[in-house]
Design a protein that fits this description.
Layout: H1 2-18, H2 34-37, H3 40-59, H4 64-82, E1 118-119, H5 120-126, E2 156-165, H6 174-194, E3 201-203, H7 206-215, H8 218-230, E4 233-235, H9 250-267, E5 274-277, H10 285-293, E6 298-301, H11 306-314, E7 319-323, E8 333-337, H12 353-356, H13 385-400, E9 407-415, H14 421-440, E10 446-450, H15 453-464, E11 472-474, H16 496-525, H17 532-535, H18 541-555, H19 567-596, E12 611-613, E13 615-616, E14 625-626, E15 628-629, E16 637-644, E17 650-658, E18 663-667, E19 675-683, E20 686-700, E21 704-712, E22 724-728, E23 745-747, E24 754-757, E25 762-765, E26 771-776, E27 779-790, E28 811-812, E29 821-825, E30 829-836, E31 839-846, H20 850-853, E32 856-862, E33 870-878, E34 885-890, E35 894-899, E36 912-914, E37 917-921, E38 925-931, E39 935-938, E40 944-952, E41 971-981, H21 994-1004, E42 1008-1012, E43 1023-1024, E44 1034-1042, E45 1049-1056, E46 1078-1080, H22 1081-1084, E47 1092-1096, E48 1103-1108, E49 1112-1114, E50 1120-1125
Parallel strand pairs: 1-11, 2-9, 2-10, 3-4, 5-6, 6-8, 7-11, 15-17, 22-23
Antiparallel strand pairs: 7-8, 12-42, 13-14, 16-21, 16-42, 17-20, 18-21, 19-20, 21-43, 22-29, 24-25, 25-26, 26-27, 27-28, 27-33, 29-30, 30-31, 31-32, 32-41, 33-40, 34-35, 34-37, 36-39, 37-38, 38-41, 39-40, 44-45, 45-50, 46-49, 47-48, 47-50
Helix pairs in contact: 1-4, 6-7, 6-8, 9-18, 13-14, 16-18, 16-19, 18-19
Length: 1126
């Protein structure tokens, strides 16, 4: 009896660890505490489980010894679980979340690159990339195993994870996919999972859940809630979409995660715990960090270079702790990498796709889908189950050889699967028959079940004895190749018009989030009843914010911002983004009026236009239309309000369109500002009549609205200076037309260089209008700019939306004759413009101090609207001895080292995503290019940087899109070029300079121009300028008003910039260039946001205790921190 009791107790302990469904299902995020054990529901489940265990023991006496031995192997784990610290049930606590409860303890910040077991740069050096034929597993090898490696005490545990991958736009629009397939998938999901508690499923795309939920009655909503609570359905990642990881800006990734997480919490009470990324075309370390900060415990990835997969599989390194290259083990993300070619069923059960395809039961005869290997699946019957089960198990066992444990993850699904109820029955019924047979066979030592990611990762952690026993890895997984030399580096640039539009949208959306939160907090602080008008449905501002948030989130999809959808789908994305821009522009102008109104908490007319924003977009494909400031009788002065959404003072250039050249610009005290007026051109030598450009320099406080006055004047001594205009290479081929005020046009000597000098930079341009050299900070460096073009390789496999398969090295774009060059020069800026084939190139040097004056601004208006198989790049060639090393960013969040290996990798393998910037350097000089849009970048020889501008391709690249890329639109690609002297050698991880960071902020988060629509004499406050600190390094990434709880709260995300201190900051900065490891929120935000806060996860689902806002918080360089403000 004593022995039986011991065994029975051991069984209970084993089930406590392995069968997590015994825990109360009402709160799956609650820690295992004494309170949990006292739950009455738990008691009933416990009694029921005891009865079941007693019966099992009687029926399975031969398994008793196995269970006793298993107890010994897990006793340490059980002790850890039962000794876990008890906290309030509403506070989420585990090892991931310790930082949510941190106070003012100083943290030792990493100073050098992280140490790891696997460094991807070193791994690339060691891989031969020989693409050897591996047999049935073409990209691997012939896997063998010994059946004796399994036994009664060491079973192979199979976790089959059913899923359906639903692209929110690709061959069809988001809505078309929903109505044709996804709606049925989700309806079938709640019905078919409810039929059998053994069935499980995972779902990723919250955007589709939102659409489906909005159409459902209470019965289906309750069904889905029950499935989630029981663990049959797991929502994985929880983002609005499965975001792209190459082109997406990290701000937008956080935003789309937050949008999804908020929806899940509001409607399903779900906090996602695991991430699922099976289709993004390469994987970024930034994404892993953002998931970690959102309290995601583990993730799965798929699309990785086949040679990298092979090497990791050989070393049993496909499961690892993904570590940030600039951090330590606290950033580790437990990651599972799928080993084979694809995520479809033929490539997931094991190495032989012709065998695995036989277990995709949607391909049964009569279902309309077949196996390419011409061996169809068979319905599982009593007659064939033994043979079929053993055939499948052989694949499982071979796949298990690639991992360190006997816990095996096997996906079951594909694109838009399970849209018919027949497929649910075919897949689940046939697999259940296979599992029943496998589990009953005592000689096979296998346990198989349907599962979720939570089931798998829980079992993995137990099996491995803690995830720290897995290897650590630093680096990223770009550039992806799925076979041969087919590198997916084309999509880094495809459809640049939409990529640029994405960045314009996030600039306006972030500005709207910040100014709306400022307005709401200000109204709340100055009124006893808060700010009811701002939040009211009548105002409509919340709805407009939601429209924009969801449009931006949708475009982060891995077929959206990548530019890899059908033409009509891209137009649909574009239409949504333009509507979103209109929506947030309205929010901005209404919030500005609210903050500047003399009366506290005014109720404004929601349909009124108080300010016109400076640009509009009439349709998808069109360039922005700038609003022109006009004057008339009794209207000699116009107000322009500038909104600075950054929490630092900044000095910037402002460009406005005016109807008259006799204008002056002053501040509110009528003090003139440095400025100039210059003409506009509709052709190279033809000026526009009745419209001019006014340039002026402003310095504005943090988080402020500041008013400036644009006035018509008849006094030539008061008006802004007129810029001079000179032409080079004008030989009569262009018609000359001068606008009023600019009748004198100079002529530059033929064939001579053009020299430009400013406070911080001297530059030399060729007679063709392209940069030749730069002098700054006491150095002079050759920096030769030219445009080059690639063709597409001939053959069956050619460049397309995804792939870049060039026909050889790029060729310099040659000119038949010297192009006409315009030089527009004034006291505050000099601008050089030249029309080259495919590109209207403009370079501007600003004559001022600070970050704007330290760089050269470049705008390439690319018009690749004709031609066939042309890819155009901007190449910069310098004297910098950079060798084989160059640096690109990941999602505009961190820099990463790249190495050129042309001896074993093709040209296209050296193109990497440049979401924000790239640089090359030697021991003394760095050349950086900061980008206002994501594009592909490479360094194909020492001292060189190359940035793709646009691609026009006539054919499909056989990756499913079934079309080329020929819907090109004129696109203004915007850059800043920085040349900097290095004062020392840094041992730190790769970092941008402070000037590069500030230039990136200037491009992405520009000043918002608000042109007053009404009477300039109407009394508004001249400014709104809260008292805050102005540090260059502490960046308010976002201020987002959230309706997650009953009362609105503002979520704050802070970013401590990390810069290379060997590159001195620009002279004359308006902010304090200090890089700290501590944060005091009360110094960053005005007191209107309250004096209490909660530290939170990045998407605000998990919160710690209340803290005063003046509590010092540790925030190491490059780290993010989030807070919910009271």
């Amino acid at each position: 009896m004593v022995g039986a009791a011991t065994v029975l107790g051991g069984c209970v302990l084993l089930y406590l660890v392995l069968d997590l469904t015994l825990l109360p299902s009402s709160n799956h995020n609650a820690p295992l505490t004494r309170e949990t054990h006292s739950n009455s529901r738990w008691g009933k489940q416990f009694e029921s489980s005891l009865e079941k265990l007693e019966g099992d023991i009687k029926r399975n006496q031969n398994k008793v010894q196995e269970i006793k031995n298993a107890i010994d192997t897990i006793s340490n784990f059980v002790n850890q679980r039962t000794e876990s610290k008890e906290i309030d049930s509403n506070k989420f606590q585990n090892n991931l979340e310790r930082d949510l409860y941190a106070g003012d303890e100083a943290e030792t910040c990493p100073a050098t690159s992280a140490e790891a077991d696997i460094n991807m740069l070193d791994l690339y050096n060691s891989i031969p990339f020989d693409n050897a034929d591996g047999g049935v597993w073409k990209q691997g090898w012939n896997i063998e195993y010994n059946k004796q490696q399994w036994g009664p005490r060491r079973k192979l545990r199979i976790f089959l994870i059913p899923h359906s991958h639903n692209d929110p736009g690709w061959l069809k629009t988001f809505e078309d996919y929903y109505h044709s397939q996804t709606q049925a998938i989700l309806t079938n999901l709640v019905n078919k999972l409810s039929e059998d508690s053994r069935r499980k499923f995972i779902w990723a795309e919250v955007s589709y859940l939102m659409l489906w939920w909005s159409e459902q009655g209470q019965e289906n909503k309750d069904k889905m809630r029950r499935l989630v609570e029981s663990g049959q359905l797991e929502i994985v990642t929880g983002g609005w979409v499965m975001n792209d990881e190459a082109n997406s800006h990290f701000w937008a990734v956080v935003q789309q995660l937050t949008e999804g997480h908020e929806w899940l919490m509001q409607h399903l009470g779900v906090r996602p715990k695991h991430a699922w990324a099976i289709d993004p075309f390469g994987h970024s370390a930034t994404n892993a960090y953002l998931l970690k900060k959102s309290q995601i415990a583990a993730s799965l990835i798929q699309r990785v270079h086949y040679s990298v997969k092979k090497r990791l599989a050989q070393d049993k390194g496909l499961e690892f702790r993904w570590r940030q290259g600039w951090s330590n083990e606290k950033s580790d993300m437990l990651t599972h990498m799928m080993p084979f070619y694809s995520y479809d069923v033929p490539h997931t059960c094991g190495p032989d796709p012709k065998v695995c395809c036989q277990f995709d039961f949607k391909r049964l005869p009569g279902y309309g889908v077949t196996c390419p290997w011409r061996i169809s699946p068979q319905p599982i019957t009593n007659d064939n189950v033994r043979q079929r089960a053993e055939l499948l198990l052989d694949q499982y066992r071979k796949k298990a050889q690639l991992y360190r444990t006997n816990v095996l993850l096997v996906p079951l699904g594909d694109d838009f699967r399970f849209d018919h109820s027949a497929e649910w029955d075919a897949q689940f019924n046939n697999y259940q028959a296979l599992f029943d047979h496998l589990n009953a066979r005592q000689d096979l030592y296998v346990e198989a079940q349907f599962a979720t990611l939570s089931d798998y990762f829980s079992a993995l952690k137990i099996e491995v004895g803690g995830e720290k026993r897995l290897p650590s890895l630093t680096g990223d997984f770009f550039t992806y190749a799925d076979r041969d030399d087919h590198y997916w580096s084309g999509y880094f640039t495809s459809r640049p018009y939409y990529k640029r539009l994405d960045r314009v949208l996030i600039g306006y959306l972030r500005a709207a989030e910040v100014i709306f939160s400022l307005a709401w907090s200000h109204g709340k602080a100055t009124s006893s009843n808060g700010s009811p008008w701002l939040l009211s449905p009548h105002a409509g501002l919340r709805n407009k914010l939601t429209i924009a948030r969801q449009a931006n989130a949708l475009f982060q999809h891995h077929d959206g911002v990548t530019g890899t959808a059908k033409d009509h789908v891209m137009r649909d994305y574009g239409n949504k983004m333009i509507k979103a821009i209109d929506s947030v522009q309205h929010v901005i102008q209404m919030s500005a009026q609210y903050l500047l109104y003399n009366q506290a908490n005014p109720e404004l007319d929601p349909n009124d236009i108080y300010f016109h924003l400076d640009d509009t977009r009439p349709r998808t494909g069109a360039l922005s239309k700038r609003n022109k400031i006009t004057f008339g009788e009794g209207l000699d002065t116009r107000k322009v309000v500038l909104f600075n959404s950054l929490n630092r003072a900044r000095t910037e250039f402002v460009r406005l369109r005016v109807a008259n050249y006799n204008v002056m610009v002053t501040d509110q005290s009528h003090r003139p500002l440095p400025s100039q007026v210059q003409p506009l051109f509709d052709e190279m030598a033809s000026m526009v009549d009745g419209e001019y450009e006014l340039l002026f320099i402003v310095t504005v406080p943090p988080l402020s609205l500041t008013t400036f006055l644009i006035s018509w004047t008849s006094n030539a001594d008061e008006r802004a200076p007129l810029a001079s205009v000179s032409l080079a290479n004008h030989q009569g081929q262009h018609k000359l037309h001068s606008a009023e005020g600019f009748e004198q046009i100079g002529s530059l000597p033929e064939g001579q260089n053009i020299k430009v000098n400013s406070q911080q930079i001297s530059a030399v341009f060729s007679s063709h209008g392209l940069l030749k050299s730069v002098s700054t900070q006491g150095i002079t460096m050759t920096v030769k700019l030219e445009f080059v073009r690639y063709g597409a390789v001939e053959g069956r496999e050619r460049s397309g939306a995804y792939l870049f398969l060039p026909d050889g090295p790029a060729k310099v774009v040659m000119l038949k004759q010297a192009p006409l060059v315009r030089v527009i020069s004034g006291p505050v800026a000099t601008q050089i413009e030249v029309q080259h084939p495919f590109v209207l190139h403009q370079a501007t040097i600003y004559n001022c101090s600070g970050e704007v004056g330290s760089s050269i601004e470049m705008v390439n208006l690319v018009e690749l609207v004709n031609g066939k198989n042309i890819e155009v790049a901007m190449r910069l060639t310098s004297d910098i001895e950079s060798g084989d090393t160059y640096y690109t960013d990941l999602n505009a969040f961190q820099m990463i080292e790249r190495r050129r290996q042309l001896h074993k990798l093709p040209l296209q393998a050296h193109y990497f995503p440049m979401s924000g910037m790239a640089y090359i350097e030697d021991s003394g000089i760095r050349l950086s290019v900061i980008s206002g849009q994501p594009l592909g970048a490479a360094s194909l020889s020492s001292g060189q940087l190359e940035i793709m501008q646009d691609r026009r391709l006539a054919q499909d690249d056989n990756r499913g899109l079934n079309q080329g890329v020929e819907d090109n639109h004129p696109t203004p690609n915007v850059f800043r070029l920085l040349l900097e002297r290095k004062s020392c050698h840094s041992e730190q991880w790769p970092r941008a300079s402070l000037a590069a960071h500030l230039s990136h902020q200037s491009l992405l988060w520009p000043l918002v121009h608000l042109i007053a629509a009404g009477d300039p004499l109407v009394q508004l406050k001249g400014s709104f300028s809260p008292e805050t600190s102005s540090e260059c390094g502490l960046h308010v990434l976002n201020l987002r008003t959230s309706w997650l709880t009953e009362r609105p709260r503002v979520g704050l995300v802070m970013h401590q910039l990390a810069w290379d201190e060997c590159l001195p900051p620009p002279v004359g900065l308006s902010c304090t260039p200090r890089m700290s490891s501590m944060l005091n929120v009360s110094a960053v935000l005005p007191t209107s946001f309250g004096r209490q806060m909660q530290k939170s996860s990045l998407t605000f689902l998990h919160t710690g205790e209340q803290l005063p806002t003046n509590t010092n918080q540790s925030l190491c360089p490059n780290e993010l921190a989030a807070f919910l403000l009271a």
